[in-house]
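Loading example: each entry is read as three labelled lines plus one structure line.
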Amino acid sequence: MLLFVARRLLYLIPVLIAVSLLTFFIASLLPGDLAYVILGDQATPENVAALRRDMGLDQPIWIRYFGWLGNILQGDFGRSFRTGQTVLQAVTERLPVSFELMILAEVMGLVIGVPLAIVCAARSGGAFDRFMTGSAFAMLSVPAFLSAILLIYLFAVELRWLPATGYVPLAEDPVANLRFMVLPALTLALAEWPGIMRVLRSDMIATLQEDYIALAKAKGLKASRILFVHALKPSSLTLITITGINIGRLIGGAVIVETIFALPGIGRLLVGAIYTRDLIILQGVVLLVAAGFVIMNFIVDLLYAVLDPRIRHGHA
Amino acid sequence: MATLELTLDEDATAQPAKRGRRLGLLFWMAVGWMIFMFAVAILAPVLPLPSPTDMDMLERRAPISAEHWLGTDGLGRDELSRLIYGARISLVVGICASVIGLIIGGALGMLAGYFRGRFETMVVGSMDVLLAFPPLILALAVTAFLGQSIFYLTCILGVLSVPAFMRVARAATLTLARREFVIAAQALGATHARILLRELLPNVMLPLLAFFLLGIAVLIVVEGALSFLGLGVPPPISSWGSMIGEGRESLEIAPRLAFFPAIAMFLTVLSFNLIGDALRALTDPRQGAL
Amino acid sequence: MSGNTLLSVEDVTVDLPTPRGNLRAVDRVNLTVGAGQTLGIVGESGCGKTMLSRAILQLLPKKAKLSGRVMFDGQDLFQLPAERLRRLRGRSLAVVFQDPMTSLNPVLTIGTQLIETLQEHLELDDATASRRSVELLTAVGIPAPEQRLGQYPHQLSGGMRQRVAIAIALSCEPKLLIADEPTTALDVTIQAQILDLLAREQRRRHMAMIIITHDLGVVAGRTDDVAVMYAGRVVERAPTPALFKKMRMPYTEALLAALPKLDAAPHTPLPAISGRPPDPTRPLQGCSFSPRCRYAAARCKNEKPALTEAESREHQYACFYPIEVHAEAGA
C-alpha cells in the first residue's frame, strides 16, 4: 500500500510541473501585455515601461517563470491589482462555497443514480430498466445551464418555492443556506446521475453474473443483502473512476452554476476575473483549480485501492 | 462449467440485438432532425426570413404571430431567424472544432499506437497534462487572454478535444497493429507511411467517426456554456448558448426566449449522441452490450 | 435405494433459448437421493450436469425454461414461494461450486462470508457466530482459523479457499450438499484431500451429497450410486459397485477407458473418446452417443433408446446394444 502511494505521488510531480508551465505560458505568451491591461487608459509608453520594470516583465520569460514558481512554492500566488486581495485570500474565502456546492451535488447525484442503477440491474431488461436507461441517455444531452434555466423557471418563477439567486453562509443560517444551495446543487446533480447510473448499472449486471453471487443466493441470503453487500461494492470500482473524471465536469459546471445562481464561489471569482481582465487572479485560480483537480484524481486512485483489497495487497 | 460459459455468451449476444431493435425508430428520428437542422442552417440566407440582427424597438418581446413565427426577443429581433442563424454558429463551431480534434488527435493517436516507445510516452504524458485542466476552465482562461472570436473559440475547443480523439485512435491502432494483415504488409516491405495510410487508417476511421459525432455533441454544449456566460461568440453574433443566456434575463416575462433555443440545442445534442452511440455500438459490439 | 428419499428429481427438463435456437441442456432426467446417501453424477463438460445442479438449486438464468418436478424433503422446489426457498437454501440445501477463485466474494472477508450464512439461518449473536466459524474452519482443516476470519479470499491458496467454501456449505448442517466439480479447479495433490474431507464430513454429519464430476475415478470409492449423463440425459444409472463391476452403456465404458491407469505400461496412449458431443441446439433423432459409439448400428441412428431397468431394478441404462449383449452377439 505504501509503495502504491509512493509511486502515484511520484507521478504527480511532473504533471504538476507541466500544469504550472502551461498555466504560466498561456498567460504570458498570449497577446495583450499585462502592463497595458493594468494601466488601461493611462497607458503612455513611459508608464508602461516603468510598470514593466517594476513587475519584472522586461526580464526573460524563463526567469519570470522560475520567480513566479518560487513565490508560489513559498505560498505567494500574487495579488490582484484590482482589489488588492491576494489570490490565496480570494480563493480561501470562496472555496467553502464551491466545496459545499460540489459535495451537495455529488451526494444528490449518487442518491438519485445509485438506487436507480441497483433497481435497473436487478431487473435488467424490464420495462423500468428500459425507461430509466433511455431517460439517462436523454439527460446526458441536457447541459447544466439548460437544467438550471428549467429549474429556475419551475421552482423560482412559477412555484416560487425557492430563491433563484443569492447566498447566505452556512455558519450564519444553515436553513437559509440550504434554500439557496438546493437549486444549484440539483442542477449539477441532474447532469451527474445519468453517468453514475449507466456505469454502475452495467457493472452491477456484470457482477450479478459472477459465481459468488450465485453462491450468495445459494446461501439463502436476502435479496437486499446480495445486492447491497455482495454486488454493490465490487461493482463500484468504475463508479469511483467516473467520479474522478466527473470532478472536472463538476468544476466546469460549478463555474456556470455559480454564475447563474450568483453564488460567491471559485467559479464566480474566475468568471469575474475574466470580465475585469484581472490576470493575476485568473492565473492563480486556474493553477490552483488544475492542481486541485490533479490531486483529487490522485485521491480517487487511492480510494480505488481501499475498495479493492486485491489492489491494496499488490495483486493487481 | 461449459454450460455456465454458454449462458454468459448468450446474455452478451442477446443484449445488443435488443438494443438495436429499440434504437431503430429513435435513430432514424435523430437522423431526420439532423437533416432538417442542416438543411435549414445551410439554406438560411435564401429562406424568406427577417434579418436576425434587425432590431425593432416597438416590437420587443412580441408574442408568436404570423409575422414573427416564434415572436421577437428583448431587442425586437425575430426569434425564429435568430434560432436558425444561431444553429449555423453552434454547428459550425462544434463541427470545425471536432474536425481539429479528429485530425490532430487521430494522427497523434495512430502514430503513438503504431510507433510506440518514447514517442508514445511523450504523447500520452502531454495529453495527461492537458486533461489535468477542467476543460471549461481552460477554455475560459484562454478566451480571457486571447479575447473573444469565433476562430479562437473553435481552435481552443478543438485543442481541448484532442486528448479524447488521441485515446480512441491509439487504442484502435494498438489492437490493429498486432493483426495479421499489418504484419503481412510489414513482411512484404511496405513503408510505415503506406501501412499507416492504407492498412490502419481505414480501420481506425470507423471508431473515430463514431466518436466524432459524440465529440460534436460535447463541443456544442461547451460552446453553448461559454456563450451562455457571454464569453463565447462575440456579440452581435449569437449562438444558441448566448440566446439562452439572454433569455434567462426575461424568464419571468417571456420564458420562451430561453426555451426555444434550449429545445433546439437539446434535440440537436441528443441526435448527435444517439447517432454516435448507435455507430459506436456497431463498430464495437462489446461496448455496445453495455 | 433406502426407503426415506430426500431428493427426487422427476422428469426435469431445462431449455435455454439461444441465438442459434433452443438448447435443451437437461432432458427429462429422473434421479433420487436417499437421506445420508451419496450420488455421483458423471459426464463430459457440457453434458448438462451443472445445469441440472443449478436447476435443483433454482439458480438457473432467468431466461431458462424449466419443467418437471424436484421434491426435496417433501417440498416441490419449483413451486416453493421465493421466501421459503431462500430459507431452505444454505440451511438444508447447500452447495460447493467448482472454482473457489470465483465463488468467494473478493471484497468481503472470509469471516463475513461465513458469519452471514450462520446469522441468516440460525439467529446467532455475533460472538457465537464467530465461535462457530472458527470451529467450522478447524473442522475443514484450516490452520490458524482465528486469523483467517479477517482475511480476504485472495490471501488464501486455491485449496484453502475451497475448504472455506466447504465450511460455508457445512455451516448450517445441511441435509443435502451439492458439490459441483469441487476439485476440478484445484491442484492434483489437493484434490484427494478435498474429496476425503467431503466424505469425512458427510459421514460425521449424516448428510446426503451429490458429487458432480467428469472423473469416474472421483466417484469410484466415494459414492453409493452413480448416474452417467450424456447430452442432457442420464444414460446409465446404478449402485456404484454394480456399475464398476458390469457397465453396460458404451459411453460409460469409454469414460472409464479415458482414465489414466497406474498399471498401464509407460507411454501407452490414453484412449480418448473420439469426436465431440453433439450440438445441443440440434438434437439427434437417434441415440445422442451414436456418432461416437464403436458399437452403433442402424437402429441407434434412428431411434432414441429409453432409460430402462433392463439389468436389475437398480441398474438402468439407455442402450439398444449394451456391452455384454453386443459381445455375445459378436461371439
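Chain C touches chain A through 30 residues (CB under 8 Å).
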